[in-house]
Design brief:
Layout (H helix, E strand, L loop, with lengths): L2 H13 L8 E5 L1 H5 L9 E5 L12 H4 L7 E4 L11 E6 L3 H4 L7 H17 L2 E4 L2 H11 L6 E3 L6 H4 L13 E5 L8 H11 L6 E5 L23 E5 L3 H10 L2 E4 L8 H8 L4 E4 L4 H5 L4 E3 L4 H13 L1 H14 L7 H18 L1
Parallel strand pairs: 1-2, 3-4, 4-5, 5-6, 7-8, 7-10, 8-9, 10-11, 11-12
Helix pairs in contact: 1-14, 8-12, 10-13
GO molecular function: glycosyltransferase activity
Organism: Alloacidobacterium dinghuense
Keywords: Transferase
Length: about 350
């Protein structure tokens, strides 16, 4: 599941009951949404919306006509309907496509991304940002004033908050864990380089969990014929949520080398499962992980290698990181984000009706 999927999974069950709207139209893959508990609310009308995200088809009249029924629209990503003129709330997870335009392959993708983000900046009544870092990026790149920005940390879904009953994965142990896709900002090339430096000093495998194909901008610099490193790097691809929790439970550490993140769900998931963290000191990651991670410079391979070695060999450090993680994760396992989001939406609709 993507980061946006994690965001919605945690937010919607707490958000929907708090909305004052008499009718809530939810757009998405109907079979997926209809099975969710929050969709059983009598006010919720699930509609099928199968248009590819960030594709030109999502702007066609056949895709956007449904928005005319809405008094207010919430888009949980920046791909807003460009011709919508009603009240608008948009969630911005990050501005990676502006900060690191090389993460998009073509000029057309870069143009479309900037066009959408400019429209968001000009038209959104409320911009929900998932971190203080993202809020500052919105001010910096889009010149949006702080009075239109609301920072709400994403809540973690209830099924993730119950981590005590999770078993360990059937994977060669000991192992280090990476969770994420293979977009350039994830810095998987850097991680493999750091592991190459340290692998002869530790007995660990490096387990890579996440989607490889299907992205327009996955990292083409990764040579998967070369990264096996004598069988020590295991790419397991996408796994179920239950399997992912098992990987967290059995890992000696999560290594998170991203160059740019708006939030970083794997950090919170690792904390929940008592998995020590070594992560990049870039973007939002120190804001999210706080004192529950050992930090490194993600562009200094030797610094990353030192952190990997320390997080698996220093028993005292590991104990501190685990303890701090259990304490810090509490701020992401409550409904405060849903309460603030609902208040913003209810106020906006109330202003419109008034």
């Amino acid at each position: 599941m993507s980061g946006i999927g994690r965001y919605l999974q945690g937010l919607l069950p707490a958000l929907v009951p708090r909305l004052n709207a008499k009718r809530i139209i939810a757009l998405g893959r109907g079979t997926d949404l209809g099975a969710e508990a929050w969709a059983k609310d009598s006010r919720v009308d699930v509609r099928t919306f199968e248009y590819p995200i960030f594709g030109a088809a999502e702007q066609l009249p056949s895709a956007t006509s449904i928005y005319r029924e809405a008094e207010a629209l919430w888009v949980p990503q920046y791909n807003i309907p460009l011709f919508y003129r009603g009240k608008l709330v948009v969630t911005l997870h990050d501005l990676c496509h502006l900060a690191l335009p090389e993460t998009l392959r073509t000029h057309v993708q870069r143009w479309y991304s900037r066009r959408l983000l400019t429209a968001v900046a000009n038209r959104a009544d409320v911009l929900l940002c998932v971190s203080q870092f993202t809020a500052k990026e919105v001010e910096r790149f889009l010149n949006v004033t702080p009075d239109r920005i609301l920072v709400t940390y994403p809540p973690i879904a209830d099924n993730w908050a119950r981590a005590s009953d999770v078993k360990e994965a059937h994977t060669p142990k000991p192992y280090l864990l990476f969770v994420g896709n293979q977009k350039k900002n994830k810095n998987l090339v850097g991680l493999i380089g750091a592991f190459r430096q340290v692998m002869h000093r530790i007995p660990h495998h490096l387990v890579l969990v996440g989607k490889r194909d299907g992205f327009l901008n996955f990292d083409t610099e990764i040579d998967f014929s070369d990264v096996q490193l004598h069988g020590r790097v295991l790419f397991v691809g996408q796994v179920s949520e239950q399997e992912l929790r098992m990987y967290y439970r059995g890992a000696d550490a999560l290594i998170f080398p991203s160059l740019y993140e708006g939030f970083g769900f794997p950090l919170v998931e690792a904390m929940l499962h008592g998995c020590p963290i070594a992560c990049s000191n870039a973007s939002s990651l120190p804001e999210v992980a706080g004192d529950a991670a050992l930090y490194f410079n993600p562009v200094e391979i030797s610094d990353m290698a030192k952190a990997i070695y320390a997080v698996v060999t220093d028993i005292g450090l590991r104990a501190i990181l685990i303890q701090n993680g259990y304490a810090r994760v509490r701020r992401f396992t409550n409904d405060s984000g849903a309460v603030a989001t609902a208040l913003a939406m209810n106020n906006l609709v109330g202003q419109h009706l008034g």
